[in-house]
Specification:
heterodimer; A: alpha/beta; D-Maltodextrin-Binding Protein, domain 2; 2 domains; five-stranded mixed sheet; about 40% helix; about 10% strand; disordered N terminus; B: mainly alpha; MetI-like fold; 14 helices; 2 strands
């Protein structure tokens, strides 16, 4: 296992990484965050690690709500951190609500529509920009910067959470991207010492791994790659498209690729399926996550997952057999081709603009991002932290290690591409439909490429 | 004994009017407020939304007239694929539920040993509804490696991709609906038990066999209940959401992308309340027309005792 890099290097590289990123649309973050707004009513603010000097809500009782999605370890960690906060500030009560990611966005939209959203919300990068179509729908966090210490984040990181109207919609926890988690034994069984560097090599490996596979997976099929959900193929496709052409998907609302360029990627996906490297649409049955039996039984070969989900996916693999797993970047489309990784803030935290206690919410956020005890409880359960204090504690206590650290290394050492449009539901859902139509054989690569360009352009036009 | 004469003094009309009791109306107020607030108001609002470019979070972005309707009907192919998927589910699912419910009710109407236990067992699935647990069971049952395929293979048949094939996925959901026929079955059972035994006795004397008795006596008598169940099951199928959302995730290729799911997607994932509301009104119109046809046709095939 690699000697783990220091978080200082993570931080330095983070700046480098975000500088390399290319927000490309109207809704993309503004160049610099807006200047902090006027001091709110509840002043003065003091650092959260000096609780005696400033009491949230001037020492008066207040109840706020916080929501998040995630798996059980995250729920347990955050509940413990909130308990710690309430012990520290007994006059503040923090109610919480949490659940799985599936359906969480819908839940939030309904809450926001009814103006009954929690005071603090865990949010996705794309939502900050998509919910208001470039207008911030959350509290501008610059207005509570006297309580929430924004110097914890680099200006570049804050920039990604800044909407087109110049408001800071959320603070980011870290940066993430997808990397390949592969089964070392699969490689060893096929006399390979390292993960394939190109798609051709991957396809070749897949051909031999899948020998004897049945048309429908009856519990014995093996693959070189198993996508754990429709998002996997979506991100992989866009990353391949960028790496093969060096072009972003769109610029100023115009799609940039040609039919030939898009078709080439569809053809590679088609070859991946035909060779047996990855399952056909019919072979890939629910559940579409790391609890899929193919992955859990070690028949999947490899997966393409967010760095923050490495332990989740690894924990399900062969009953947590992490030693059997390795981390690699997605293979290049062509030998020597680009190896950029699509990246985005892993998640963020926003405050409701309808909150009765925005400063209390900001104070709690500040606590979660700066209090040492809270940070040790949260550890890596929110992903890899990129904010100053959290990163320093993660480095000091070696919180980020093993496979996750290898993943972070890959993110840092490769060019990053980023756009809030990648995950905008208005663009993404048509892509899912096209991938499904192509994978079921309803349309060929040429038609898929034509539909891809026309439907994405149409979605972009509607967003203007 | 002389009967007392009825009073010739007439009660003034005004006085009679004053005697209309107010209490029932007062008691109805909570219901009235509820239905206005939670039914009528949302329905009216959805029509207003359908004429506007309405964002769930950002609010009203202006009047668009019938543009949402025009776009759905003429420029949005997915809407028609969704209509097709919904109608396929309704057209195949409704008769299947009615037929299986009637068949089981017919059998359970005989005086069999332990019949009450069987009635309970058949009713249980409909209590479960369309929840996540049932969906997981269905995914297991109809998975490539599931019991259904295993049985098919034991019978020498080829396994089928029940969940991921465009041809079979809708039927997997129809089977789920048909499995949950309990309530429909109970209503049929109640109707069957109301058929007078003397009619069967007379038919037996005339030499009619059981099947003939069912076709010529039972069915005509229970047609009002058949109409009632048909309308109910039809509406339930039109409103299906959970199974397609949880089991097949609308696919493959929108084969199970029912209108209710599309409406939900456009309202809460694409942030287009206007479009979603327009879809709802078109959907309402389609269901209304179908129900009207059903009721109009009923005079030809539904037989009322009176």
């Amino acid at each position: 296992m690699k000697k783990y890099a220091t978080i200082v290097s993570v931080l330095l590289a983070a700046t480098m990484l975000v500088s390399a990123c290319t927000p490309t649309n109207n809704a993309a973050p503004a160049a610099t965050p807006a200047a902090p707004a006027a001091t709110p009513a509840n002043e003065p603010a003091a650092p959260a690690d000096e609780p005696g000097e400033w009491l949230p809500n001037n020492g008066n009782a207040a109840t706020i709500r916080m929501s998040w999605w995630g798996a059980d370890p995250r729920h347990e960690a955050l509940i413990a951190a909130l308990d710690l906060y309430m012990d520290r500030y007994p006059h503040i009560t923090v109610d919480h609500e949490f659940g799985a990611f599936q359906g969480w966005m819908d839940n939030m939209v309904i809450q926001l529509a009814g103006q009954v959203e929690p005071d603090i919300m865990q949010v996705n990068y794309a939502w900050v920009h998509a919910f208001g179509g470039g207008t911030n729908v959350f509290l501008d966090l610059n207005t509570v910067s006297n309580v929430l210490d924004l110097s914890e984040w680099s200006p570049e990181l804050l920039n990604f959470m800044t909407t087109a109207d110049g408001q800071l919609g959320a603070v980011p926890h870290g940066v993430t991207g997808r990397v390949v988690i592969y089964d070392r034994e699969m490689l060893a069984e096929h006399d390979l010492s390292s993960f394939p560097a190109t798609f051709d090599e991957w396809i070749e490996l897949g051909s031999s791994v899948s020998v004897g596979n049945a048309g429908l997976d009856q519990g014995n099929n093996t693959y070189a790659f198993y996508p754990l959900g429709p998002e996997t193929i979506d991100v992989m496709f866009l990353q391949m498209l960028y790496n093969n052409t060096g072009k972003n998907m769109e610029e100023n609302g115009q799609m940039l690729h040609t039919v030939e360029e898009v078709r080439e990627i569809f053809e590679i996906i088609g070859r991946m399926t035909e060779s047996g490297a990855m399952p056909t649409f019919e072979q890939q049955e629910p559940p579409h996550d790391a609890t899929n039996p193919v992955w859990m039984e070690g028949r999947g070969g490899s997966a393409f997952e967010w760095v923050g989900n490495i332990f989740l996916a690894g924990g399900n693999f062969m009953e947590n057999d992490l030693d059997r797993l390795g981390i690699a970047n997605l293979p290049a489309v062509a030998p020597g081709g680009g190896q950029a990784i699509m990246q985005r803030p892993s998640l963020g935290h926003a405050i409701s603009r309808n909150s009765d206690y925005p400063e209390v919410a900001a104070h709690l956020l500040n606590f979660l991002y700066t209090d040492e005890e809270a940070l040790l409880i949260i550890a890596h359960h929110l992903g890899v932290p990129f904010s100053r204090t959290a990163a320093a504690i993660a480095e000091r206590d070696e919180i980020i290690q093993g496979l996750q650290l290898e993943g972070v290394d890959l993110l840092i050492n490769n060019h990053g591409i980023m756009s809030p449009l990648f995950e905008d539901p208005n663009l993404r859902q048509p892509r899912f439909s096209i991938f499904e139509a192509f994978r079921t054989g309803s349309i060929d690569a040429e038609t898929a490429a034509e539909r891809f360009l026309s439907e994405q352009q149409s979605a972009l036009d509607n967003m203007r | 004994m002389e009967q007392p004469k009825p009073s010739s003094v007439s009660v003034p009309l005004k006085k009679v009017k004053r005697k209309i009791p107010i209490a029932p109306f007062v008691l109805l107020i909570p219901w009235f407020i509820g239905i206005m607030l939670f039914r009528i108001y949302p329905i009216m609002m959805s029509f207003w939304y359908s004429l506007r470019d309405f964002h769930p979070i950002m609010g009203d972005r202006g009047f668009v007239g019938l543009d949402n309707y025009r776009w759905l009907l003429f420029d949005f192919p997915l809407f028609w694929r969704s209509v097709e998927a919904t109608f396929r589910y309704v057209v195949f699912g409704t008769p299947m539920v009615l037929a299986s419910a009637l068949f089981i009710a017919f059998i359970l109407n005989f005086k069999l040993k332990g019949v009450n236990l069987f009635r309970t067992i058949y009713y249980v699935p409909s209590i479960l509804g369309g929840n996540v647990a049932v969906s997981l069971i269905w995914i297991q049952l109809f998975g490539s490696n599931g019991p259904v395929n295993t049985i098919m293979m034991m019978m020498g048949m080829e396994p089928v991709s029940w969940l991921r094939s465009e041809a079979f996925a809708p039927f997997t959901l129809i089977f789920l609906s048909a499995w949950q026929f309990g309530s429909v079955m109970l209503i049929f059972l109640a109707a069957l038990q109301n058929v007078s035994p003397s009619l069967y006795e007379a038919a037996s004397i005339d030499g009619a066999r059981k099947f003939r008795q069912f076709i010529s006596i039972t069915l005509p008598i229970i047609t009002p209940v058949v109409l009632f169940n048909t309308v109910n099951v039809l509406l339930r199928h039109f409103q299906e959401f959970n199974s397609a959302f949880l089991i097949t995730d609308r696919g493959p290729n929108d084969a199970t992308n029912f209108l209710n799911i599309l409406i939900y997607e456009y309202a809460f994932r694409r942030f287009e309340f206007g479009v979603a509301s327009a879809m709802t009104w078109l959907f309402l119109a389609a269901i209304g027309i179908l129900t009207l046809i059903l009721f109009s046709s009923s005079k030809h095939w539904v037989h009322y005792n009176d």
